[in-house]
Amino acid sequence: MERRKIEIMDTTLRDGEQTSGVSFSVSEKLTIVQLLLEKLRVDRVEVASARVSQGEFEAVKAITNWATDNGYLDRVEVLSFVDNGVSITWMQQAGVNVQNLLTKGSLNHLTHQLRKTPEQHFKEIASVIEQAAQQGIRTNVYLEDWSNGMRHSPDYVSEYLDFLILQPIDRIMLPDTLGVLTPSETFAYISALRKRYPEIHFDFHAHNDYDLGTANVLEAVKAGVNGLHLTVNGMGERAGNAPLASAVAVINDFLDDAEIGIQESAIYTVSKLVENFSGVRIPANKPIVGDNVFTQTAGIHADGDNKNNLYFNDLLPERFGRKRKYALGKTSGKANIEKNLQELGLKLNEEDLKKVTQRVIELGDKKETVTMDDLPYIISDILTSKAHDEKIFVESYVLNHAKGLRPSATIAIRINGQLFEEHAQGDGQFDAFMNALTMAYAKNNIQLPNLIDYNVRIAPGSSSDALCETTITWKTSERTFSTRGLDSDQTVSAIKATQKMLNIVLNANIRQETSDMRYEVRNTRHEM
Ligand SMILES: CC(C)C(=O)C(=O)O
């Protein structure tokens, strides 16, 4: 089947920049344009509105200079206005070759905003198109509020289109300015225009107010539009525009007769770049580009992936430069853990795997997910805590940290079955905890080792809810050794490391006592 080429016009730098609070710098705009055209391979880019500001002028100039040197100038477009040629002068000075002329696509807007008759409006439009042509600037025409125009003033839309098709223009753009269309209306309105004007290039511009942007884009292509306006991450006025990533995926996966030239593998890089430059975070559940969308959380899904790919769908993360992840948390189960271990190149025996799974579930109960990067820490924590059985156990503690007061700790600790409760202050919560501990040990005539180093790490790239690994180095008169604790709370991880130390020291003392006893027995024997 022959495929229809659908042009993708990216308007992240024009409509996308109309996202509340967003303003791209000159160099950010240039970098985004370069990525859009060279890596993502969109067909055209709309980079600004004419006349907006001096900064905008400089950005457009930088872009047109680069585009001229690299053969992209005819693919760089600017939104312009019916303003007696002021926009045209601005664009000409900025080196722009293509204007997207904003006109009225509904009688309501024309009458109440411009307060003009259709005849007056059409006359001014014809004049702007002509002036532009004289300056070598080509024209696409936008019919603002077209969707409401189709609903409430279809005769005006027809009259206007009958006029427009006689003008020397390249494309007509049909916007759903307020994002009010349903998919079936989109299909019906565009099909009707397609039938009436079979030769005209129509673009469709969806807004996402009802979250129907992608669905409407799909219907618009089915109904025969030639091009789509999209934005990276769905940025744009109010609820934004149809997001480029989703639109590309639905066209590629659901329409056999349509073809687009977008490099899917560049989508994620461009999304992240725009996220960084705009400061607008991509929601974690945003299709294709959100952090969580290729992460299987339920163990049953990971298990199914191992069994004949039961949970397969066409949206493979690799298409978009991403990877499938298996979350670790209370619902993850053994299959998820095994998938992560495979990825890390680790293998555990059944018993250790069970322990790690149990620990992940416990941690998952405290914090939502544990990442793959946390896993080596958890494993080493579990494997090292096997080394000794715990005769000393910190049963409970209260740590206090309040502004203007010295930190304090109250602890209840079981030493060889006997419970000691102590309260102490310190320079920090952990220091207070250690002071209370020292008091309990003094009652048992045991000296604690000296703390000589204290190191806290979180897994690389984690956020503030990450697991903390605290490694403490201790020194006794005989030796230096380190213990490690792991928890989502930093002080708790230090306390866990300390409890391990207490048991190691106790075991060493027991071994020492046993060997002293043996020595005495041997000596006695000798004496005998
Ligand atoms: C500027 C116009 C074309 C617009 O973004 C819209 O109508 O949605």
Structural account:
The chain has 528 residues and is of the alpha/beta class. 44% of the residues lie in helices and 19% in strands. The protein is built from 17 helices and 18 strands. It has helices at 26-40, 54-70, 86-94, 107-114, 118-134, 146-152, 154-164, 183-196, 213-223, 244-254, 267-278, 299-306, 333-344, 350-366, 375-385, 429-443, 490-527, and strands at 4-5, 7-10, 44-49, 76-81, 98-104, 138-144, 171-175, 202-205, 227-230, 258-259, 295-296, 325-326, 392-400, 408-415, 418-425, 450-458, 468-475, 480-487. The strands form 5 sheets. Strands 2-3-4-5-6-7-8-9 form an 8-stranded parallel beta barrel, surrounded by 6 helices. β3 (44-49), α2 and β4 form a beta-alpha-beta unit. α1 packs parallel to α2. The termini are far apart.
In brief:
It is built from 17 helices and 18 strands.
Unreliable runs, pLDDT <50, ≥5 residues? Answer: 513-528
* Radius of gyration, CA atoms, in whole angstroms: 34 Å
| Residue share in β-strands | 15-25%
Instruction: Label the overall shape.
Output: elongated
- Please report the distance between the alpha carbons of the first and last residues: 104 Å
How can the largest sheet be summarized? 8 strands, parallel, barrel
Bound molecules: 3-methyl-2-oxobutanoic acid
Structural class: alpha/beta
Number of helices: 17
Mean pLDDT across the residues is 89
Helical percentage: 40-55%
Q: What is the number of strand segments?
A: 18
Question: Strands of the biggest beta sheet: in what spatial order?
Answer: 2-3-4-5-6-7-8-9
